[in-house]
Amino acid sequence: xxxxxxxxxxxxxxxxxxxxxxxxxxxxxxxxxxxxxxxxxxxxxxxxxxxxxxxxxxxxxxxxxxxxxxxxxxxxxxxxxxxxxxxxxxxxxxxxxxxxxxxxxxxxxxxxxxxxxxxxxxxxxxxxxxxxxxxxxxxxxxxxxxxxxxxxxxxxxxxxxxxxxxxxxxxxxxxxxxxxxxxxxxxxxxxxxxxxxxxxxxxxxxxxxxxxxxxxxxxxxxxxxxxxxxxxxxxxxxx
Amino acid sequence: xxxxxxxxxxxxxxxxxxxxxxxxxxxxxxxxxxxxxxxxxxxxxxxxxxxxxxxxxxxxxxxxxxxxxxxxxxxxxxxxxxxxxxxxxxxxxxxxxxxxxxxxxxxxxxxxxxxxxxxxxxxxxxxx
Lengths: 239, 128
What we know:
The complex is a heterodimer. Chain A has helices at 22-35, 52-56, 71-85, 105-113, 135-152, 168-176, 183-193, 220-236; strands at 9-15, 39-46, 62-66, 90-93, 119-123, 164-167, 198-202. By secondary structure, chain A is of the alpha/beta class. Chain B has helices at 3-24, 29-47, 49-59, 65-127.
């Protein structure tokens, strides 16, 4: 495929206090941008208190600098609003902490280019990959898998994966309405209710390079309860 | 001083504070309605022991003043729930404004940079 026939793509990188890993993440993404000119990178600084902005602004990116910390949902939604406003065909969420693998990007957007899906999820567990989470984490992910299978009837092997590509239809939907608290699993319910197609592909993820995961192990049971409640609420919420 | 008069005086003072707050613009009118209704209901109930006794009897409450607590507590619950709803709504608005601001700032800075470049080019030409 010729590069000029590629869809306009925005890679959304939410960053909150990611000074340790943002530079290497952006370097990787810039290499992709050099190869494919229709790709833009958008960093959303979610009110970081460290040097995230200073580092990010040295790269050729769109920097959306939130004056207040909105949390992951609000930060990522800013990216979708920007993408919707500037007519991007595809948006990809890419974590700043270096967990996501840029080599998978092309495979991630292929089902959208082929119009096979409205959203594509990069899954760590669809096939056996190098990724090894702790057994507690895998158990948690399996628990969400069961809940979502019960609520949507579809199998999501990695419902908490943030590595996802969306088409323009989903971008528009997210610009207007994006779950704030635990967006990854909640979004699956939202799209299912709207009758949009979700597909999973295999993604290879690395261990975190820096920063602190939004999931602390000792709080995990409380976290699971809150996410469960959010998922169920999302199911019954009125549009 | 009996508790009846004491509680009535408190309610009246409270009522006056509400009205004064609205008058000074510290409290918005629509926010004051729930408070005014509550203070009037509490005022009536605390003053007329007969009414309170009658209602308590009707509801099978043996100790009439405890009905007063119940009414007050329910009022407070409604009030807090209303407040939580308002906070959610404000939060939603604040999120929206923050996002719009960030996007606007990015676009404006871009434009300013472009304008600067253009100005610099024009100056260069003039010098030549």
